[in-house]
Amino acid sequence: MWAYVVRRLFYAIPVLLGVTLITFLLFNVVGGDPARSMAGKNAKEADLEKIREQYGLDGSLPEQYGQFLKEVVTFDSGRSFRTKQRVGAMIAEGAGPSLALALPAFFVASLLGIALGLFCAYFRGSLADVLVRTASVAAMSISSLAYVILGQYLLAYRWRLFPIYGFEWSLVGTVFLVLPAMIWILLSVGTDVRFYRAVMLEEMRTDYVRTAAAKGLRTRTILFRHVLRNSLIPVITRLVLSIPFLFLGSLLLESFFGIPGLGALTVNAVTNNDWPVLKAVVVIGAMLYVFGVLVSDILYAAVDPRVRLK
Questions:
Q1: Packing angle between helix 61-74 and helix 2-25, nearest 10 degrees?
Q2: CA–CA dist 173, 82 (Å, integer)
Q3: pLDDT 10s digits, 18-62
Q4: Count of CB atoms within 10 A of residue 194's CB?
Q5: What's the domain count of the chain?
Q6: pLDDT tens track for 117-163
Q7: Domain extent for 207
Q8: How far are the Cα atoms of 7, 50, 265 from residue 38, in angstroms, in the given order?
Q9: Is the residue at 106 inside a domain?
Q10: How many whole angstroms separate alpha carbon 72 and alpha carbon 64?
Q11: Does residue 162 belong to any structural domain of this protein?
């Protein structure tokens, strides 16, 4: 297995190089002159030259790309154009609030989606199945912005059940995360239920499930020891590939609820043309995606004895 892991890590190198090249071209070529974005349209040439020299933008494009690769390898993305802070420190500071929101919401949404998907697959065609599917489609069809506005106005402002805005690292401060977590779950569970229902339903139509039912096995045994267990590969694929989104958090929720996570950091970087922060976030997302694919392959072999890592 270790030989497979090492080989996949080597395969990831060209992928990450491609990501860094595209990212560099987008921010340094297509996006225009970063120095002029920082200094403004009316900046003098002397000021632009000073900024280029300060941030290493005075070299040729190959030299700048080489510097960018060095930053990626050393995990040192320099300083933010706007705040002058180290980008690594900003990302480390924002990762905690993002994970504090994303992990509980993701865990609850995943469990709820799998449970409802299994329920709908078992009672397929029934009134309960139709109602759950209808609610799922409605939940995923409503804009996330509508959830945010309705939740802040009705639950936070009118009924005063939750704070409207803010974040605090304490047990009492968890109340700031409840409303955005509820919105995260509503946005996720609709698509999850439809996906997991289709996966479970396909597994229930197989011959071994009919044979198990004919043998008189209990419904609980059939659902959890057979159907759910043999549906784990697509379930794992969906769950593991969500890792980058957990780290980066939710752009909209963090911005509207004042959570100082990576989502809000990314939105501010886009607004302020803060290229070092944006490049770092893009590269981290690509690395996490590659890592997620590798973890999913390893988990395939763990849950399915037919899968062999060679």
A1: 140
A2: 29
A3: 888 888 888 777 766 777 777 767 777 777 778 777 777 777 788
A4: 19
A5: 1
A6: 999 998 988 999 999 999 998 888 888 889 999 999 999 989 989 99
A7: 87-303
A8: 42, 12, 17
A9: yes
A10: 12
A11: yes
pTM assigned to the model: 0.83
DSSP string covering the chain: -HHHHHHHHHHHHHHHHHHHHHHHHIIIIIT--HHHHHH-TT--HHHHHHHHHHTT-SS-HHHHHHHHHHHHHHT---B-TTT-SBHHHHHHHHHHHHHHHHHHHHHHHHHHHHHHHHHHHHTTTSHHHHHHHHHHHHHHHS-HHHHHHHIIIIIIIIS--S-SS---SSSGGGHHHHHHHHHHHHHHHHHHHHHHHHHHHHHHTSHHHHHHHHTT--HHHIIIIIIHHHTHHHHHHHHHTTHHHHHH--HHHHHHHT--SHHHHHHHHHHTT-HHHHHHHHHHHHHHHHHHHHHHHHHHHHH-TT----
Query: Residue 235 corresponds to which tokens in the numbers above?
Result: 């379930």
Q: Does a structural domain hold residue 17?
A: no
CATH no. for residue 162?
Answer: 1.10.3720.10
Nearest one of 238, 80, 101 to 168, comparing CA atoms: 101
Residue with the two structure tokens 């500071």:
93
List 86's β-bridge partners, or say none: 79
- Kindly state the tokens that stand for 191: 């698509």
Question: What distance in Å separates the CA atoms of residue 84 and residue 192, rounded to the nearest whole number?
Answer: 41
Distance, in Å, from the CA atom of 191 to the CA atom of 114, rounded to the nearest integer, reads: 11
Type of residue at 152: Q
Q: Is 28 within the bounds of a domain?
A: no
Query: Could you identify the residue written with the tokens 């919105």?
Result: 183
